[in-house]
Amino acid sequence: MDMKNSKLFSPLTIGSLTLNNRVGMAPMSMDYEAADGTVPKRLADIFVRRAEGGTGYVTIDAVTIDSKYKYMGNTTALDSDDLVPQFREFATRVREAGSTLIPQIIHPGPESICGYRHIAPLGPSVNTNANCHVSRAISVDEIHEIIKQFGQAARRVEEAGCGGIGLHCAHAYMLPGSFLSPLRNKRMDEYGGCLDNRARFVIEMIEEVRRNVSPDFPIMLRISGDERMIGGNSLEEMLYLAPKFVEAGVNMFEVSGGTQYEGLEHIIPSQNKSIGVNVHEASEIKKVVDVPVYAVGKINDIRYAAEIVERGLVDGVSIGRPLLADPDLCNKAKENLFDEITPCASCGGSCISRTADRPQCRCHINPRVGFEYDYPEVPAEKSKKVLVIGAGPGGMMAAVTAAERGHDVTLWEADTQIGGQINLAVVAPGKQEMTKWLSHLNYRAKKAGVKMVLGKEATVENIKEFAPEAVIVATGARPLVPPIKGTQDYPVLTAHDFLRGKFVIPKGKVCVLGGGAVACETAETVLENARPNAFTRGFDASIGDVDVTLVEMLPQLLTGVCAPNRTPLIRKLKNKGVHINVNTKILEVTDHDVKVQRADGTEEWLKGFDYILFGLGSRNYDPISEQIKEFVPEVHVVGDAKRARQASFAMWEAFEAAYSL
Predict the structure, then answer these.
(1) Which residues are annotated as catalytic?
(2) DSSP assignment, residue 537?
(3) CA separation for the pair 226, 16 (Å, rounded)
(4) What is the chain's mean pLDDT, rounded?
(5) What is the DSSP string of 488-533?
(6) Considering the entire predicted model, what is its pTM?
(7) What is the tens place of the pLDDT at every residue in 332-360?
């Protein structure tokens, strides 16, 4: 398909707004918000940069109508006329960049963090939120007051010069969504019970918003096409309600799916989820309304997006994480420059997960997220002879960044292929998409002129002979085998070697030591490789049942893994009968048995394993940096070579080191 003539890049009119194209930036929590409700420059820059990249409209999420009820941490607000001028500046920047700003105005309802200030969150009924705070059921008078607040916030959106208003009643989430969903709404008055009663809050909200803005000012409503939970709203209910929402004043639908707590993997579909998870529901809703319908949810290939619009399944697409990976996605696609697009691998990483050392939204493959204008794409002041050691994600990012800045870059990799530990990560079911990163970096490296030498081990002697002006050490990590009693006496098998295919496990009892991503994905792969019903000849080739045990010292598995990936994997392991031992310390191993200590101090032997695999993580591997500092002017150590962590740190550190050369 020639994207220049694609319907995806044709104009679309929504109410009084005419969009340049049919790609919108989906609402995403960024955690760059300010305590006073304003939009800080760093947050605004993220949206402006996507506007510059050709996105039809950009949505800033969770703009609260009442600052007393904050959403997550600091919350952007439009609950006061005093906030309009700074929002107008934000909207103007987006408009001047060629796009339009859509604030999603919300009341967080049960999801408010106000419970930390000893204020009960508000909800249709008594519910317990993710923070274990219990919401209180609001009165009818309070409902009417909140509806008015929605109207006043909408008025401010239009006064600020925004292109339209986003409203949210999806995912059994926040106040409108929780009123709509039978999973949260247990009321027995006119706002509860039957479907029309549960929808009353949403319809009154839409009507009040419409009364407070111009007649054709666009109102965009996010809904769950299907909550995908027993007892939740189904597609049939949405087909019934969608025309009623249009009658109340809605100009466009954004169709998502799932519920916030029970099925987050449907809202933020990551690994193991197919592309376009909500397209069917969106296409069905499109049949019963006469306003544009957009689909959202793992539309991470722009060619697929163009196809579903061309076929008339939807009128447009709402894209989130792929626009973080590449802010110029639309401009590149329109010029058919598909290889140039930095791909989103739906990894569920730092765009979703938040930790104390990285509390804000980042992107594994795009280190500029959150730093949109801090690293301009300009040549370095002086071209240098640069050697990069290691072709994992860190090494490839370093080589690409340095070469694109004009340096003379050579990359040495001891293995015969690029990828590093990504080669292991993609073995587990559902993780193949992570190959996109290395495939893309490989393309950019070749285009930028990186001289790649595979199968070459770096030594002090050959580095000295090469005489680089700068070296970036990205030698990665090696499997960690702690000095547990028995490891010196019996053969040690590592999860890394199993994932590399150095040996197979056709059947038998398997114990995987560890409970992090490597261990759990190893257990999953062992289960996937089992062929209990296969017919084979010969005892050596017979394949049978496997029985898997996990042993983890921490209180839970997959600590630090984002919920959309963690929950489905744990569910899968449990459903397949994996014996999960948490709060369990490993004391000793033999060739077939493992001695453990339980949380209460008792000790026992887990016996009779055919395979014991060490999946206890990795430790940094840097055999070279200190030795070469004597004769190399600049030496940078990045990623796992510095300290074993997620791939994101390797790529960020590699980018920063290479950019600084």
Answers:
(1) 173
(2) S
(3) 29
(4) 95
(5) TTS--EEHHHHHTTSS---SEEEEEE--SHHHHHHHHHHHHH--TT
(6) 0.95
(7) 999 999 999 999 999 988 898 877 777 89
